[in-house]
Amino acid sequence: MVGAAIFVGLAGALGAVLFRLLIRLVQGFAFEGTEGVLSVFEEGIAAETHDPLEAARTLAWYWKIAIPAAGGMIVGPLIYFFAREARGHGIPEVMKAVAVRGGVIRARIVGVKALASALSIGTGGSVGREGPIVQIGSAFGSAIGQRLMLNAAGVRTLVGCGAAAGISATFNAPIAGAIFAAEIIVGDFAVTQFTPIVISSVVASVVTRYAIGNHPAFIVPDYEIVSPFELVPYMVAGVIAGLVAVAFIRTLSFSEEFFEKVPMPEWSRAALGGAIVGTMAIWLPNVYGVGYTTISGALAGTLTAGLMGVLVVAKILATSITIGSGGSGGIFAPSLFLGAMAGGVVGTLVEQYFPGATASSGAYALVTMGAVVAATTHAPVSAIIIIFELTQTIDIIPALMTACVISTLVSQLSNRDSIYTTKLRRQGIDIFEAKNPNVLKDLFVRDVIGLNPVVVPASADFKTVLDLVVQSSHSQFYVSSPSGAHLGAISLLELRRLIYEQDTLQHIVVAGDLVDSSHPTVTDDVDLSVVMKILSASHFDEIAVVDADDSTRLVGTVREKDVIEASNREQLRRDLAGGIQTSITAAGSGQTVDLGDGYQLREMMAPPHVTGRSLRQLTLRERVGVQVLLVRSKKPEGGSHLRVPHGDDVLVEGDAVIVAGTKAALDMLDSLSAQPPPETTGF
């Protein structure tokens, strides 16, 4: 894994460098023609990707519209016909691959995503380069993991390595890259997974620094806290950042849903989005591209509060339209842009009304950049580390942490999902499904109760008690009164202490003399977490269960080994149910879900020629080798419901079947659905 992590880091860094160069070439050609391309070759690979802002300002208005529209005209068909996962900002697709497909990402994503995103960004699409670089690096990691025939956990780890390499290479921030991959992509800080991720992130940072130099992503202002009271306006900035992030998340989600309903071919919508963004750029060319030039202006304090306020709204719209219409690019840079603009407005106003008592507006822009990223991604740790690595100053930490935590809280109170998981939830995938971490809280004594406790009359002599011990596997023996009331228990531990004196005691000691009346009891409605606490706090491995209405009536026992077995079964059930639910949901959204070992899950509409026939008549398992797991039927009032079918279930028009089988078998079933042989009675 260490060797693979090093290789993924190298591949991710190389991909990031070449991707940035490709963006520069497309930008140069789109906005400056042949001269722009030649200038890139003259400056070499160390040339930083820059915004086409200056060149765009000199263009005629129709070129400002035509260039992004032409970019969308190429990007739309490229994505639609070659790799639809390359659409959008990339990171949700990586998260879905980790959660649903065991980290499997098609290798072609590397080329298609790089070209599509470079065309989108280079022709003025209002998106960032970080998301594509993460997806490209993750695809490298997935391809290497599959090539090495690693298990799903190993492939997922290498996907995280690729994501870490991408962030590290983009921002020259190895710590942030590792934290981002663990926090967002893999969702696990376990040492076995985190160690390779850290290695990949460091390798990518070193290689990128060697290739293009050790330059920060932004030239940041000197930072200091002038007064402890300055944390108050930073708290206000955090609230504003949270609100901006919520607006961004909801606008992007609305845009994606809106363009899905536009009555035109899916592959052509990106051109429409490009034309709309180009129209906005006639008055505000700052919305073009990743926006780093404008961000640098806000950090330097050279932009007016009015312009920055307008750019907040314009950038939200431009990015949402670019991605929603089918463009390819990330939302990380737009989030930084929104944070810089919103923070610049707050800083300018604070500086205006409290001159000399606060830092410059650029300092607020810097802190709020991190706050908006934290709020959109719901990953405050990653945002704090990224900004810290950009500034290399410890003084920024108090204000940065304050703003990031508050902005994340505001965002989470308004939106359960981050900008990444919102897209997945619309597809029916909940990768962070809320689960009680203590499975015992959902299990009760009645689920594991033993109904045959060993009961000893209080008058039984010592020899009778010992005979029961020899014949029983229990460790607690419950004593009852002549009327049947539960008096307590005799512990095997206590009997062991007296066993050597049995000759003396067998005629003078009875069970009633040995009973421990303080032995704990529970009722059958107590959850097993309470039972386990009782067992852990005592030396017992079995306790009595008494009637809820009559504490003197013994109804059974609960044993520690039964509690542990129930916990293991419930955890396994949850793991299986969670995986199956996510897989079924993904299959129901038109996705093919890999189950491992060559098997897949797929949903298919029942074609007209099989309606009115039962599954037994179709004989799909015998003829094609697929198994029907579920049937999805339409409800008369709207919507649909799933049911587990039996052999006599008859398919009706509008039914869909969720089937499992090998890829070859499912492909065969697809072909039979489209064009059934006349001699068959099935699909």
Describe this structure in words.
It is a single chain. This protein is an alpha+beta fold and 683 residues long. The protein has four domains: 2-212, Clc chloride channel; 228-426, Clc chloride channel (Orthogonal Bundle); 440-564, Roll (CBS-domain), CATH 3.10.580; 592-674, Regulator of K+ conductance, C-terminal domain (Alpha-Beta Plaits, 2-Layer Sandwich). The chain has helices at residues 2-32, 34-43, 53-57, 61-82, 91-100, 108-122, 130-147, 152-171, 174-186, 191-212, 231-260, 269-281, 292-300, 305-324, 332-353, 361-377, 380-391, 397-414, 421-426, 445-448, 462-471, 492-498, 502-505, 511-514, 528-537, 560-588, 615-618, 620-623, 663-674; strands at residues 455-457, 476-480, 486-491, 521-522, 542-546, 554-559, 593-596, 599-605, 627-634, 640-643, 656-662. It has a five-stranded antiparallel sheet. Helix 8 packs parallel to helix 10 (191-212) and helix 15 (332-353) runs antiparallel to helix 16 (361-377).
